[in-house]
Every structure is written in structure tokens, then in C-alpha cells.
């Protein structure tokens, strides 16, 4: 019985990581879009929970020997925690916000990291490709927005970020239904390199 419970938890763990990713993306891009300017404390809390969920998931993946999953989720968990320090704390009056060049460099490095994950994910399903592709686009746009004053790239970045959040939660729901029902009710698409 304990083995069965342990197996279910291990299978559901990717769902926990994806849930953390979806929550983090939703909170961060809600903050970027200015939709919840009066709820900065709640956004900080959501980012904190998302970061902890993803760090916990990555440590559990590493314990299972799934180093690829651990290497994917751990940096994103650290990203949400760092964003609290860089962008949320200054809005709460704690510390000083970094200048635009520093944020451009920071977000550009994260865009490069997501681009590497995106290129490495072509053996996975189409939904995962859309997730990483939209994340890559959003981080690139947010980095470009740091160098412009018209906020057109901010709008593009927020659209891409909300798309990424949708795909993260969609994949999470698809995997959860697969684990609970034993069959898929939400299509994720086939891998692009599936042999004919």
C-alpha cells in the first residue's frame, strides 16, 4: 500500500512543479501588466509559494535521479525568489530597484536560459514546446522593454507570459487527469520527432 502511495506521489510531482510554474508566471505577469498594483504583498506571497514549490520539486526530482527535470525546475524556483528581491521589495519600500540596464541584462540571461530549454524540448509534446516558446518570447520582450519608453514590448511580454501560464496550468491539469483517471482527456500533442 505504501509503495502504491509513493508511486502516485512521484508521478504527480511534475504536476506540482508545473503548478508552481503556472502560479509564478501568472503572478509575475500580473505584476508587470499593472493589473494588481494594490496587491503587491499577495503577488510576493504567490511568487514565494511558486518558488518554494519548484525548488522542492527539483530536489525531489534530483533524489529520483531525474536530473533534467531538476535542472529545469530549480532555476525557475530561484528566479521567482530573486524577482521578489529585485522588483517586489522595492515596490513595498524595501531596498532600491535596479536600473534598466541591470534588469535588461538579468532578463536577457533568463531569456537565453529558456531558449536553451526550448531548443532541448523538441522531443517532448507540442504543449511543452508552446510553454517554453511563449516563455522565451515573453522574457525577450521584457528585456527589450527595459531599453524603451513606449512599453510596446511590455505588452508583448505580458501576452506571452499569460500564454505560458495558461500552457503550464493546461499541462498540469492534463497530467493530473491522466494520473487520476488513467487516460488522457486533454490532448498535449505528439512529439515533433515521433517516427512515422
What does this structure look like?
By secondary structure, this protein is mostly helical. The chain has one domain (7-181). It has helices at 2-33, 40-64, 67-91, 100-120, 126-145, 152-181.
In short:
This protein is 78% helix and 0% strand. It has six helices and no strands. Mean pLDDT is 81; it is low at 1-13.
Search tags:
mainly alpha; 196 residues; 0% strand
Q: How many domains is the backbone divided into?
A: 1
Share in β-strands: under 5%
What Rg do the Cα atoms give?
Answer: 17 Å
- Principal-axes geometry comes out as globular
Which residues sit in consecutive blocks of at least 5 with pLDDT less than 50? 1-13
The rounded distance between the terminal residues' Cα atoms is 40 Å
Residues in helices, as a percent range? over 70%
Summarize the main sheet: none
Q: What structural category do the secondary elements indicate?
A: mainly alpha
Question: What is the helix/strand order?
Answer: HHHHHH
Q: Provide a count of the helices.
A: 6
Overall mean pLDDT score? 81
Q: Total strand count, please?
A: 0
